[in-house]
Amino acid sequence: MVTYKQHLFVSLIEEFTLNESFNYPEKVNFLELLLEAPMDDATAEKIVSNKKRVSIYYQGDEKTKKGWYPIDPVRIDDKNKSKFLLAYIVPKDGSKPTLNYFIQRKIVNWNVLGKKDAEETGNYDKRIMKFFTDPSIPKEKKNVFREKLKNVGIPIKKLLTYAALISSLLGGIKFNSYVENNIQAKAFKEFATLRSKAFTEKDLKDYDKETLKRMLDFYLKNPKKYSDKNGNVSFYEIANDMNTKGQDRLNFGDKKSFGLEQSDIKSRYTKMSLVLGNARVDVSDNGYRVKDIYDFNQYYSNPEQYGVSNFPDESKKIIKYFGNGNYIKGFEEIGNYYESFGYKGFSVNIFIPKA
Q1: Which helix (H) or strand (E) holds 312?
Q2: Phi, psi angles (nearest 5°) of residue 294
Q3: Residue 351: which residues within 8 A CB-CB, separation 6 or more?
Q4: pLDDT tens-digit profile, the chain (355 residues)
């Protein structure tokens, strides 16, 4: 079962917007204060009256070490203007329980009591990992929360260390330089920063608009060839046919990277196809309207591969991809993990005039 402070932390990162809570490292809100707060009187009285076994995280004193303790609560006592929880410590080895006093203000975490909606551990890990991989959240804020969670008996798992590495890759100077000159990298960075608004022609440079117009004009010469039965247009196939010299051709048998191993893609058409994939195209007298959802749906064909338990090993591969310049593979793998966390991408709605 997830502890009270874990449940509180999930509420913290989901109920407050990034602008309110995370974009300013020095800002602290009410839920953050609760995250550090000791057990309150009402909770202490509740666990005694419930007469159920509960685990508490204790910060330690001269007689009792810091750590987690499974206890059977007995009563609350007042001594020297301080409150104490009298409880039996229940050893894990099944030996005889021992009676012990815990200073209430040093109890800083405990099980979620009586919450029917308490998070399962796996689901909790996914939500926390999503937070620590979000590049839009300042590194300073992430470090603050790591320390706060540690102080209430919630060590950050090794997988979150790898998540931080992935996040740092997306904010690196080399990657940012790559984004400046590659539309597919720009779209991916928008995905990785959890974009919510539509990606439109305002997000394209003039060079990218010209590229897309050429592709749309090319499509209009033979629309049946590039459209499927649902009316979706394959920008991958358009790019392949426009790459007359054979450069940067897409291999549809390779679902991970389409056969594009390195980051030095030369073809402007291939770059654009990696943004649009299979999209809807509405043609009018004035121009073209391109609609799509930018996402990474390979996850749905093999969701087990992108479980949280696999992330430590997978993140090593991702780091290697980026180090070797295999950005396309790196994008795909990170994108699939974001899908597994519940982020469904952003809409694409681009208008390109014919004239």
Answers
A1: helix 311-323
A2: -85, 110
A3: 200, 201, 287, 288, 289, 290
A4: 677 777 777 777 665 444 444 444 444 456 667 787 899 999 999 999 988 889 999 999 999 999 999 999 999 999 888 999 999 999 988 899 999 999 999 999 998 544 444 445 556 767 777 777 776 677 787 888 888 888 888 776 665 666 666 666 666 656 777 788 889 889 988 888 778 899 999 999 999 999 999 999 999 999 999 999 888 999 989 998 998 776 766 665 554 445 455 556 778 998 999 899 999 999 999 999 999 999 987 888 888 888 777 777 777 788 788 777 777 788 888 888 888 877 888 999 999 998 7
What is the rounded CA–CA span in Å between residue 71 and residue 153? 16
Please answer whether residues 191 and 335 qualify as being in contact, where contact means their C-beta atoms are separated by less than 8 angstroms. yes
Output the six-digit token pair for 158. Answer: 């090794």
As a 3-state breakdown, the chain gives helix, strand, coil percent values, each rounded to 5, of 50, 20, 35
Residue 69's CB: how many other CB atoms inside 10 A?
19
Distance from C-alpha of 2 to C-alpha of 112, rounded to nearest angstrom: 7
